[in-house]
Amino acid sequence: MEDQSLKPIRCKAAVCRAASEPLIVEEIVVDPPKAYEIRIKIICTSLCHTDVTLWHKVDPAFPRILGHEAYGVVESVGENVEGFAAGDTVVPTFMGQCDSCASCAAEWTNQCTAVPFTMGPGMRRDGTTRFWDGEGKPLSDTVAVTSFSQYTVVDVNQVVKVDPAVPPKIACLLGCCGGTGVGAAWRLAKVQPGSSVVVFGLGSVGLAVVQGAKMCGATKIIGKEFGVTDFVNPSQLGDKSVSEVINAMTDGGADYSFECIGISSVMTEAGRGKTIILGVEKDSQPLCLPSFEFLFGKCVMGSLFGGAKPKTDIPILAEKCMNKELELEKLVTHEVGLTEINTAFDLLLQGKSLRCIIWMDK
After folding, report:
1. Are 232 and 242 in contact (CB under 8 A)?
2. Where does the Enoyl reductase (ER) domain lie (predicted)?
3. pTM for the full model?
4. pLDDT at 292
5. Are 358 and 210 in contact (CB under 8 A)?
């Protein structure tokens, strides 16, 4: 039997009622957790480009609550939840890890098949919502995390316990941008000491890739938009292509290339070694590469959460942040309260912000 003492909670959330319209901070109702679920009080969340993409999309899932990069405290747990208790400090993630299926046991994938990832609304196990507006009408979630609400309900497979000593805004970034970027260099590409790396798109994810590459010992890191260890300005190359310049700088091509923008033509500007694609192609254009390049060892890899396993790797990354091997806090350029959440959207759309932390009780 589920704990009947658990009751719905009334709280504030930023609700998206229609595509591209300002979010409305309103009172909602959050259901108690069902079996294998945890209800979390969100301390802070942040705005990711994926949220903006979903915000722009004309989608029958509206009205919905966006948000998927966050840090919080366990408020209550449902039946069959083990290893978590009220008061635990946690990071919810869009990736699950059950540690019992064959995929979770494998080293080559981070995609749990017991409770698989899905972009569609609804909790992972039963497809229903835990959120209701003031009139009792359902509100859709976002990747089963839904962090633009003061309280949320998340599957136990998608919750990672973190040391309470980790600053909230650092822990928050580990749930998406930090885990994705650092993981892509560390877990997926397995960047080797002394290697050369080029990063296309130096937003928050791209800069997290840079930190991951430095952590792994890369000695030459090239940025397409502004300097990292080396500088390339595409508007000042004359008749040369970006790939020609990068090949000259890296003695034939970068060992690792990371595409963090989502443009197929940029994906082809990569080097001779591994190309890791973190950006989703905005216009659904195919990626076309000459087949002979593969004969010489070229490898193209897709990346979901940087190949990291959340329950295994987020605590490791948190420790690396605490001992300053990683400095993800430098990605935070702005901080606002929940009532100012539309300011966070404006800052990101205007190119003025990398990551904006949104404090839920302010």
Report:
1. yes
2. 18-354
3. 0.92
4. 81
5. no
